[in-house]
Amino acid sequence: MAVVSVAGASFTVTIDATAYTDQVTTGTVNLAATVTRTVTLGDVDLTQTDSNGTISLSFLYDDNAGMYNALETAYAGGTAAAVVVVGNTGTWTGSAMQIESLDMTVDATAVATCSVSFTGAVTFA
Fold it and tell me: Which strand (E) or helix (H) includes residue 35?
């Protein structure tokens, strides 16, 4: 199987209809399944019983009017967020992602970075 790598690929993250591009520094989309193993008379039957996706993002802190504020508001309210990650070779969509964690770190040079983790159903197109 050939592997395709896109050098310098950029992506846009859309959260609840607002697109963020510049401040997003890294992102990870993970699709994981629960597989049930059943031993049968002839062979082993493997059945996917559940599917879960996670999206993790790191981004620059953008004060109280940008991505961090939108995520903090959704987290505090316990509401799901629509998350779309558009890359050069595909689009990952989570229409109702729950925020698992949200944090901000400030380093010695006063640069503030944030990270967020979402969980929920993710589709790829």
Answer: strand 24-39
pLDDT tens for 32-87 read 888 888 888 878 888 877 788 999 988 888 877 788 888 888 899 998 988 888 87
Q: What is the DSSP letter of 69?
A: H
Query: Domain 12-124 adopts which CATH fold?
Result: Elongation Factor Tu (Ef-tu); domain 3 (2.40.30)
Phi, psi values for residue 110, rounded to 5°:
70, 25
Q: Are the beta carbons of 9 and 65 closer than 8 angstroms?
A: no
* CB neighbour burial string for 69-99, b if at least 16 within 10 angstroms, e if fewer: ebbbebbeeeebbebbbbeeeeebbbeebeb
Q: Would you call 60 exposed, middle or buried from its count of C-beta atoms within 10 A (0-12, 13-18, 19+)?
A: middle
Tokens 């993710």 belong to residue: 122
Asked if residue 84 lies in contact with residue 93, where contact means CB atoms within 8 angstroms, the answer is yes
Domain locations along the chain:
12-124
For tokens 């050069």, name the residue.
Answer: 88
